[in-house]
Amino acid sequence: MSNLNLNKVVLCGRLTADPELKQTQSGIAVVSFSLAVNRRFTRGADGQSNSQADFINCVAWRQTAEFISRYFHKGSSLCVTGSIQTRTWNDNAGAKRYATEVVVDEAMFVDSRGESAGSASYVPDAYGSPSFTSEAPNFEEVKTDDDLPF
């Protein structure tokens, strides 16, 4: 009998609304958002390919939450990895309620800087062109041996 347990999700889609950063009472950053992810399927005997959007609820914590709320907005392409979690609680009427969502471990840029819907938004320097200053190091030319036969 195998004890294999794996709960890993990879989603790439677009944000359905601007993520709103909140904090718990103890000051931990959290952001909840929904990703629209297209699902392709074939319909009927004609084999026509169609697509339909699924709206997946996600939640991110701490630095990942801050990253998402800072650099992404409604319509932004986003790729996340995480795990599926199901929560239960009792509402005000005492009825048991359920929610299934993706708990995000990592979030990554998908669009290049010029392709994003809000290209005017700030993108970290690591994703832009390097800026060189007069303080850049001077490299000396390495002399090669021109007598090599190849």
Secondary-structure element pattern, one letter each: EEEEHEE
Biggest beta-sheet profile: 5 strands, mixed, barrel
Q: What's the shape?
A: globular
Average per-residue pLDDT, rounded, comes to 81
> What is the percentage of strand-forming residues?
over 45%
Task: Give the CATH H-level superfamily of the domain at 9-38 and 51-116.
Answer: Nucleic acid-binding proteins
- The CATH topology of the domain at 9-38 and 51-116 is what? OB fold (Dihydrolipoamide Acetyltransferase, E2P)
Q: Please identify the top-level CATH class of the domain at 9-38 and 51-116.
A: Mainly Beta
Number of helices: 1
| Record field, number of beta strands | 6
How big is the Rg? 23 Å
Amino-to-carboxy terminus distance: 61 Å
Overall description:
This protein has one helix spanning 62-71; strands at residues 9-15, 20-23, 29-43, 48-61, 77-90, 96-109. It is mainly beta. The protein has a domain at 9-38 and 51-116: Beta Barrel (OB fold (Dihydrolipoamide Acetyltransferase, E2P)). The chain has a five-stranded mixed β-barrel. A hairpin with a 4-residue loop joins strand 3 and strand 4 (48-61). It is globular and about 55 Å long.
